[in-house]
Write a structure and sequence with these properties.
With about 150 residues, the protein is mainly alpha-helical. Helix 4 crosses helix 5. Helix content is about 70%, strand content about 0%. It is globular and about 40 Å long.
């Protein structure tokens, strides 16, 4: 989140921002790798993700959504769509908690509503692909023999 925020405000190259921000994490290679992948994937799919946000925030002008909320929504939607091993509840709960701590009083409710709506759409159209940690896809459940 911190690296994405710095990128949005500065428009400096992502590798430069990541080097500065991730230096503070020290030797936490797994965390750094995850954060790097999440940031790059979110930025790569930003226009598609923004279109989803706009379709769900019909009573909000996109440019007036608080920056932290917008970034959290982008990250959350990216996790829902492209990070198949992260449970949707974890994604949504983490976004809400960060919003409560760093954004406006009603940001948690706003983010919960948008992410929940996107999640429901992904389930309905069959594009939610969650595997691992007990999140096997329905097609994989059928193939997996029960003990």
């Amino acid at each position: 989140m911190q690296a994405y925020y710095a990128y949005e405000l500065s428009n400096n190259p992502i590798p430069e921002i990541m080097a500065d921000i991730f230096r503070e994490l020290g030797e936490e290679k797994e965390e750094i790798d995850f954060a790097r992948k999440l940031l790059l994937t979110t930025v790569e799919h930003e226009s598609e993700i923004d279109a989803l946000i706009k379709s769900k925030a019909v009573h909000w002008e996109f440019h007036r959504i608080a920056l932290i909320d917008k970034l959290l929504l982008r990250i959350g939607i990216c996790e829902l769509k492209y990070f198949h091993d992260i449970p949707p509840k974890v994604t949504i709960n983490e976004a809400i908690e960060v919003a409560k701590r760093f954004s406006t009083e009603k940001s948690g409710q706003f983010i919960n509503g948008i992410l929940d709506s996107v999640l429901n759409d992904l389930k309905k159209d069959g594009s939610l692909e969650k595997t691992g940690r007990g999140l096997l896809n329905a097609s994989e459940r059928k193939k997996t023999p029960r003990p």
